Amino acid sequence: MGACSSYWSASSSVTLLRHSQAPIFFLRRFGHYSIHVRPPSPVTLPGASARRTRGFSFPPMRATQSQTQPPNTARIMQNESPDNQQQAQASCNGLSGEVGTPTSTVKSTLSKLEEINWDHSFVRELPGDTREGGPVRQVLHACYTKVSPSVEVTNPKLVSWSDSCAELLDLDPSEFDRADFAFLFSGATLLKGSLPYAQCYGGHQFGYWAGQLGDGRAITLGELLNTKGERWELQLKGAGKTPYSRSADGRAVLRSSIREFLCSEAMHFLRIPTTRALCLVTTGNSVVRDMFYDGNPKEEPGAVVCRVAQSFLRIGSFQIHAARTKEDLMIVQTLVDYVIHYHFPHLNRISEADEANSSTSSGKNKYLEWLIEVAERTAVLIAKWQGVGFTHGVLNTDNMSVLGLTIDYGPFGFLDAFDPKYTPNTTDLPGRRYCFANQPDIGLWNLMQLATTLKEANLISEEESEIGLNRYGERFMEEYKQLMSRKLGLKEYNRDLINKLLSNMAFDKVDYTNCFRALGNVKSSSDAVDEDLLKPIKGVLLETSKERKKAWIDWMKLYTQQVIFLVCFYCIHNLSPLIPMRLLFEGHISFPGFMMHV
């Protein structure tokens, strides 16, 4: 990777702007939720009144009224105001392939856990390991291994859950009150009808092929079909060892599980495609972890989070088979056919139409069309990450979804002071491969590995690979230009204006979120004096020299001349939502005590 101020380029001839030269866009928040906490013993809130829950909510929407809850729980409750109800139901990624399309708010028939409509297509239709469970090993000629959760529990407790996510599954909210719920979703007791397995995949880690990786501590319980015909997978993260655990223990700690639970749901309500989180359960047992990687491991509370997605397939799921024998190479096509059938069915219809009308065939290759759609979804996803200042931190190919979802929340972070080279991953600090500015480049690089896999399986040609990869760059810039113009109230995209703004923000380490929100106070005026121009953003500039003030004044003059009209404070603030700040997700949630510093 070159310097962060350089232009993007790749051997695929896709050329984009490096992100410090590209626009930043804050998405409008299409929903609102509050987190209300009544933590279970021994997880207590010091100083908290027994009569009142501690809440954390995103303004400017008004907070929801606390609903009646069973004791010893925390839950995410959706704002039920008529104005926001439909928008809050935004789908992270519908079966139609449209990213961020709001779903219907019509209530479906709710089910008990015993009534889940299981449909285990992944296990039924794809080759599996001939051996169930067992020790860590290389698993050949298979997409998965059947395993059973093995996490040890001592009086497990339900800590938090999402009503919104439960609604996707047609799950009756009263099920969260079950005495055995924590046992079922820690993996200590198997859900009736489930068929647990761990997925086999490989991946490039930090640019180097790492061979077999797989689900080392995540166990998929199976797939269900809801009343809308949508397919959802339930997966327990931290439920025990699998053949893919390598030297790890297969468990997770409460600290990282809370981060994943909160961020999964926050990203969904920011309308950023993501896996969801149904619930969070403490195991009652301790797990030893070296939190700061400084040679001082300590015991931490163990936990299991239930993740939900239409599929957990990632680029590495296809790579592993292309990297092995000819028999495994054939699995690449089997797996692509599977994912197209269940998650991109419109591409099958294109192929069927061509076969039925051979004389007027369009000549479309459904595998190329699939690559193009994966590229487009990935482009939209990463554009939206950049918009809210989200940095994934470990964008290996095994952590990139082929459905265009944010997946595997590990060492992620959000920007405070604008720094294009920011990375939340301490192991990435020397080269900063996965820093904020590099994410669009990495998205392209990962797609190149997918294209290579498809070429090795003879599903696409070199020329078709170029076509698919080129679409990534085109779609990324389409998304950016449209969103950034709306963000700043501009009639049309202005690259120079955005470049100068980002340059000023980086130079003065201006708070990323607050700066854009402050611009909501700017009024279009041609006769404002210099000092008045800075008043709207004075709170984010802090101490600046005369030279730096002049740079900001010059930019403000350009901006006020080009803004369409008096920018509505409410509109700008909805396009620049408050997000979970970096400090919320980086060590400031501590246990015991459940401290949230916001």
UniProtKB/TrEMBL annotation:
<dbReference type="InterPro" id="IPR003846">
    <property type="entry name" value="SelO"/>
</dbReference>
<dbReference type="GO" id="GO:0009534">
    <property type="term" value="C:chloroplast thylakoid"/>
</dbReference>
<keyword id="KW-0460">Magnesium</keyword>
<feature type="compositionally biased region" description="Polar residues">
    <location>
        <begin position="63"/>
        <end position="94"/>
    </location>
</feature>
<protein>
    <recommendedName>
        <fullName>Selenoprotein O</fullName>
    </recommendedName>
</protein>
<keyword id="KW-0547">Nucleotide-binding</keyword>
<dbReference type="GO" id="GO:0070733">
    <property type="term" value="F:AMPylase activity"/>
</dbReference>
<dbReference type="Pfam" id="PF02696">
    <property type="entry name" value="SelO"/>
</dbReference>
<keyword id="KW-0808">Transferase</keyword>
<keyword id="KW-0548">Nucleotidyltransferase</keyword>
<dbReference type="GO" id="GO:0046872">
    <property type="term" value="F:metal ion binding"/>
</dbReference>
<keyword id="KW-0067">ATP-binding</keyword>
<comment type="similarity">
    <text>Belongs to the SELO family.</text>
</comment>
<feature type="region of interest" description="Disordered">
    <location>
        <begin position="55"/>
        <end position="104"/>
    </location>
</feature>
<dbReference type="GO" id="GO:0005524">
    <property type="term" value="F:ATP binding"/>
</dbReference>
<keyword id="KW-0479">Metal-binding</keyword>
